[in-house]
Design brief:
- The protein is α+β, with helices and mostly antiparallel strands.
- The protein has one domain: Lipocalin (Beta Barrel).
- It is built from 2 helices and 9 strands; from the N terminus they run H-E-H-E-E-E-E-E-E-E-E.
- An 8-stranded antiparallel beta barrel has the order 2-3-4-5-6-7-8-9.
Length: 143
């Protein structure tokens, strides 16, 4: 239970830090706001790594596994369930909603370029956090 609360607290802290830094989520050159189907394809089944806004600290690494969020972290054990997520549509834009045993956060997702770099933007906000996705656990800490 403490882990679930800690992860939810981390996401809330990360979100507040990113919003304070003003990472711009508006569409622009090389940016694509993803649909529900694109989020399903590009996020579900992948590891998502991020941190609290680029300060160089170790971040988090979560496996998106068919509606369950599993924290990978820096331990050698198997990923541990810490919450759930759902992918939906809102006016043609995809929304991914996270639930960490109470706190719920909804994000639109914008791909930056053609690689594995995304902005997760709080619904209704012009700012967000930067996430990298991987098909296998990253070999280095998420920073």
């Amino acid at each position: 239970m403490r882990q679930v609360i800690a992860v939810g607290t981390i996401l809330a802290f990360v979100t507040s830090q990113a919003l304070a830094q003003g990472i711009n989520c508006n569409a622009g050159p090389g940016r694509t706001q993803l649909s529900q189907m694109q989020i399903q394809t590009e996020i579900d089944g992948h590891y998502a790594c991020g941190n609290n806004g680029g300060d160089g600290s170790t971040g988090w690494n979560e496996l998106h596994d068919g509606g369950t969020i599993k924290e990978v972290g820096d331990h050698s054990g198997p990923p541990e369930p810490v919450g759930t997520y759902a992918i939906s549509d809102s006016g043609g834009l995809g929304v991914i909603t996270y639930n960490y045993d109470g706190p719920t956060y909804a994000f639109n997702v914008t791909r930056m370029g053609t690689g594995n770099l995304y902005m997760f933007c709080l619904v209704g906000s012009p700012t967000g956090i930067i996430i990298r996705t991987f098909t296998a656990p990253p070999t280095q800490p998420c920073q």
